[in-house]
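Renewal narrative, Specific Aim 1. Our central claim is that a sequence can be written position by position from structural information alone. The example that follows is taken directly from our test logs and has not been curated for this report. It begins with the structure tokens describing the chain, in the order in which they were read.
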């Protein structure tokens, strides 16, 4: 029994260490500037252990206080990394004492067999500060975003 325990202990110490990796997505176009970066573990479900992001919406129709949104790990509402496929959902509510509003960002990307990145984003703005017809004002922005997964 001791020999078996020693065997498994030796095996555990000689197994290769799981390294960490990273995800990174950047877009810069007429609608927005976006930079998203996170640290991920390799193995154990590829957990997202750190995250920082910034989205700046350039349109004048976007409410001033929702034009630039900073995201941290606690603003990652959903995250999925499976091989070369990344799905990321970010959510951040308006701060302060204005009526309810938020920025939600969804990024989905995967590498094709030839190594091309097929990433897309959807940014949704919800604003109750200036409702039209008693309904919230909403805006959506979509486009392509290259991401790297290491």
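The sequence written for that structure reads:
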């Amino acid at each position: 029994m001791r020999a078996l325990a020693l065997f498994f202990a030796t095996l555990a110490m000689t197994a290769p260490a799981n390294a960490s990796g990273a995800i990174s997505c950047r877009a810069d176009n007429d609608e927005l500037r976006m930079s998203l970066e996170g640290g991920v573990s390799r193995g154990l479900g590829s957990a997202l252990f750190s995250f920082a992001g910034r989205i700046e919406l350039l349109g004048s129709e976007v409410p001033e206080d929702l034009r630039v949104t900073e995201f941290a790990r606690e603003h990652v509402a959903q995250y999925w990394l499976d091989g070369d496929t990344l799905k990321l959902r970010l959510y951040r509510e308006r701060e302060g004492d204005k009526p309810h509003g938020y920025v939600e960002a969804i990024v989905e990307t995967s590498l094709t067999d030839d190594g091309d990145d097929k990433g897309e984003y959807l940014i949704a703005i919800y604003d109750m500060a200036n409702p039209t017809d008693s309904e919230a004002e909403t805006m959506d922005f979509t486009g392509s975003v290259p991401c790297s997964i290491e």
